[in-house]
Amino acid sequence: MQEHTPHDPPDLEDAYRRLRQIGFSQAVFEFIYITQEGQKVEVAPDRARVLVRNTENLTQRIYNAAEGPPWTESFVEDVKAGVYGQPPKGATTRMSL
């Protein structure tokens, strides 16, 4: 599972915040930045995609991070739609997104 670090890019901070708002722990997800050449990078200005994996049920999707609206928008829509499963029992939504 991925640990939060003070060096996380701002878009990842946004993803963490929004996950908490809809009842998921960020620790349930693994975020892997991938360059156009397919090489993994932690933080790079030329990053093109983000692979997101739910580490509990192994559901994963790839989001375009290089152009267009922020990838976090599509990711949060998928989480809300149940693509990654349901939040842990007892988790509550603190606010609507």
Provide a brief overview of the structure.
It contains 2 helices and 4 strands; from the N terminus they run αββββα. With 97 residues, it is of the alpha+beta class.
Low-confidence stretches: 1-6, 90-97
Helicity range: 10-25%
Sheet with the most strands, sense and barrel status: 4 strands, antiparallel
**DSSP helix count?**
2
Number of domains: 1
- Would you list the SSEs in sequence order as H and E? HEEEEH
**Total strand count, please?**
4
Radius of gyration: 13 Å
Distance between the termini: 25 Å
Shape: globular
Helix/strand-derived category reads alpha+beta
What is the averaged pLDDT score? 76
| Strand portion | 15-25%
**Order of the strands making up the biggest sheet:** 2-1-3-4
What does this structure look like?
- By secondary structure, the protein is α+β, with helices and mostly antiparallel strands.
- The protein has one domain (10-80).
- Helices cover 23% and strands 20% of the residues.
- The chain has 2 helices and 4 strands; from the N terminus they run H-E-E-E-E-H.
- It has a 4-stranded antiparallel beta sheet with strand order 2-1-3-4, with helices on one face.
- It is globular, with a radius of gyration of 13 Å.
- Residues 1-6 and 90-97 have low confidence and may be disordered.
